[in-house]
Amino acid sequence: MTELTPQFLDRSGAQPSGPEIWPALVVPRASIEREIERLADLDRPDNGRRASAVVHPYAKAPGLGLAPGTDVTINVLKPGEESAPIRRNSNQLEMCVRGTGVVEVSGEQIRLEKWDVCNIPSMQVYRHRNTGDDLFVCFTYSNAPVLEKLGVHYVEEDPDPSIIRRPRPTEPWKPQESAFEVDLETGGAKMRSYEYLVDIDVVESKALHWPWAKVRENLPFAPRTNNRGIMLLYNPATERRNGTTHSFFATMSGGTRSNRPPEVKRGHRHSSSSINYYFLGNGGKSVVDGQTYEWGVGDLMLSAPGWSEHAHYMGSPDGSPVDQGTLTVQDHPMHIAIESLIWQEEMDGRIHALGSEAGVKNYIGPRRKIVQP
What we know:
Blueprint: E1 25-27, H1 29-40, E2 50-54, E3 71-77, E4 86-88, E5 92-98, E6 101-105, E7 108-112, E8 117-120, E9 126-130, E10 136-142, H2 144-150, E11 155-157, E12 181-183, E13 190-192, H3 195-198, E14 209-210, H4 212-217, E15 230-232, E16 249-257, E17 269-270, E18 274-280, E19 284-288, E20 291-295, E21 300-304, E22 310-314, E23 322-330, H5 332-337, E24 342-344, E25 352-353, E26 363-365, E27 368-369
């Protein structure tokens, strides 16, 4: 075995480096559709998973993704096909973009139709099945790039059938009788015994389903045009992290719009990165760090690289009503968990450390302040 020698890098007096910001990137609908057809033409792999990762040109292995901590995978099943069981310690969020099918997670089935969203929790056995007459196509978002960079992404194909159904807690957690803690009486610092490290309070994490038909009812589509224009798909297991999974939140935004696109103004920024899928509408544009990006319906976009100033503009150029819808996936909950979520809602305003101090008040959407009577 080759002997390894550590390095010492002198940081004395060094100035801290700033964020390494990736440029925004639009993945056109036409490119996505070509890749779907290419996958559909392949012979069925042994595990049944025809998949293609969408990778940003700035991404470096290990951990290739569309954003530094987020990968997006296009998954395709032909009618009647199903994938083999698998489990992994990354968490996932899926949107059905074509066809119909079933996602089976821990023995429970979720039936997906177009634009439905579901989550797949970490280390739960899952598989997919096409139950329709068309291709069953899903976009899958995961935190695999983070785990791959750490060298700890665990993937198990065809796991033991005995673990397909995960046992659920039958009684409230409490510390083992042998566990103890010591208060050092120095203002909050404590010591705890080893039991606390390996026997942790369980917050049940289940696969959940957000059907588009029900989500749509709670967005401002005609005739309910007074509904809020952006809503979080909330998973209660994420608690104060306000996620759809423990790594990501997904929001649905849109509605029936007849207003013309607003004038370009300053945007906002945050350390979490954001990926938009413009699944319904007539297109629009985004201004990211001063660069304008045009996008159309069906495009996928790294729309807000971490700490990039950004703003998105859509509407009806001729004033006629148009239905618009966007799925936004952002690694906001992960940043809350590791106390790194910084947020600047107004570019001339203060930077907030969300989750660690009082947050941004009186906003009902990006740069949309509540109008006081």
